[in-house]
Every structure is written in C-alpha cells, then in structure tokens.
C-alpha cells in the first residue's frame, strides 16, 4: 500500500509525516475528531504508537480512519 498516497487522499499531507511519526499521530487525531466515536480510535492509535514502529502506525492509522469514516457514514444513513 502506498501510505503517502493514501494519507494524501485523507487530507494528511506528506509534510505532516516526520520519521518519528509524532506529527502523523497529531494529524490523525485531528482527522478522527470529526467523528462521534473518535475517542476509542484515538486510544487504540495511541496504544499502537507506543508499541509498534512508524510503518505499522501508518497502516493502523489508515485502517482506523477508514473504519471511523465508514461507521460515521453508516450512522448518517441509518
């Protein structure tokens, strides 16, 4: 998966991704704050960032954002 392309699609630009991943985490938290169920995703993402490498964080973050967006969209439809 091309992480830079996927993050750009989600509005998380390349300039927000330093090698240590800290700005990436902040950008993801900002993105998740748009969703009502964001707190559990932020907690899971924070746990992941403490226990995995940056590439793993990026993969987990992308999945978390996509899941949050799908759930948010489904709740609007329902």
From TrEMBL:
<protein>
    <recommendedName>
        <fullName>OTU domain-containing protein</fullName>
    </recommendedName>
</protein>
């Amino acid at each position: 998966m091309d992480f830079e392309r996927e993050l750009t699609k989600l509005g998380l630009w390349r300039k927000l991704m330093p090698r240590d991943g800290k700005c990436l985490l902040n950008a993801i938290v900002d993105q998740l704050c748009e969703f009502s169920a964001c707190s559990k995703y932020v907690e899971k993402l924070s746990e992941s960032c403490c226990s995995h490498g940056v590439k793993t964080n990026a993969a987990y973050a992308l999945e978390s954002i996509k899941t949050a967006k799908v759930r948010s969209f489904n709740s609007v439809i329902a």
